[in-house]
Amino acid sequence: MDFKQTAHLYKDELLNNILPFWLEKSQDKELGGYYTCLDREGNVYDTDKFIWLQGREVWMFSMLYNNFEKKQEWLDCAIQGAEFLKKYGHDGNYNWYFSLTREGKPIIQPYNIFSYTFAAMAFGQLGKATGNEEYAHIAKTTFDRILEKMDNPKGIWSKGYPGTRDLKGFALPMILCNLSLEIEHLLEKSLLDQTIDTCLNEVMNVFYREELGLVVENVTPDGKLSDSFEGRVLNPGHALESMWFLMDLGVKLDRKDIVEKAVRIALRTADYGWDKQYGGIFYFMDRKGYPPQQLEWDQKLWWVHIETLITMIKGYQLTGSKECLDWFEKIHDYTWEHFKDREHPEWFGYLNRRGEVLLDLKGGKWKGCFHIPRGLYQISKVLETL
After folding, report:
1. What is the pLDDT of residue 14?
2. CA distance 72 to 297
3. What is the CATH number of domain 1-26+173-386?
4. How far apart are the first and last CA of the chain?
5. Segments of the chain scoring below 50 in pLDDT
6. Closest CA to 177 of 157, 159, 202, 151
7. Any bridge partners for residue 215, and if so which?
8. Is 281 within 8 Å of 236 (Cβ atoms)?
């Protein structure tokens, strides 16, 4: 693989395809915030605004402004989204709703912790970009809310009956590994160290199961496996994404052992999750091989593949693992062949098992301005160092 040429490919795609699409098509210039429900050509097909995707887009343009290039249109885009979020996104006490109407009226209660995590990330990066103290305060207060909710993220909106089958999920400690580095500049060192320690332990020693060689999505509160739908489910994309978060932490802490373990887990997960028949990585799997309860289990999703690319190229960069490079090339070929739309801007998100386009939307309730641009940015940066 020609690293220089491939770096150019990723950077060019970011700057000349993906970012112009979101800048032009997603901003609600009239009422603020972003449309994320965009069809294949970028037309708006639904005007609801989902808080976690609003936060992700604010973060994306702030982060690129901070780390890539001081482009005023990027900063303006981030600020207008953040002002909409600040005004309408929470209940006044920084409990972040899940979704709003176009005008900003709440539709769904603040049951989803990821509304909080991406609000914290968004305001943390934007505070850095602008020097605005209020943005920094919102990020820090939201982070405190997240820590308060760690043990019961959904609070009163949890559907589970208490005490029968209590489980804790992998997604929160995983994202905190990334979030704590994102807003490191706002946290006291003791809180940062404690958060990183807790999350590293949860990911590496609780949700990663040595006996399986895999990361599970849910365990009992005391860290045991549960033989139930939720307890058996695996999400290979989640596990693979979290491994580059761990590599970043390993580099920050100067701990080779963390990086090497993350690479081992990533390689095992990619091999386990790869569809040997049609190619691509499965969305959900059952660790015992039983039928998964998620009917979309065999779909191939954009974010799973782009996050795996980040993990594999970082694994190669940090350890020189030839296996990581082989996986990067294999996933690169699959991703560019199947997800890139050759006729219209942005990429497809949802393929069926055979790799055919299942939904030709460019954005929706779950797909926004995040995984693809973040991935293109991260990968081009690593390839440039190689």
Report:
1. 98
2. 41
3. 1.50.10.10
4. 11
5. none
6. 202
7. 208
8. yes
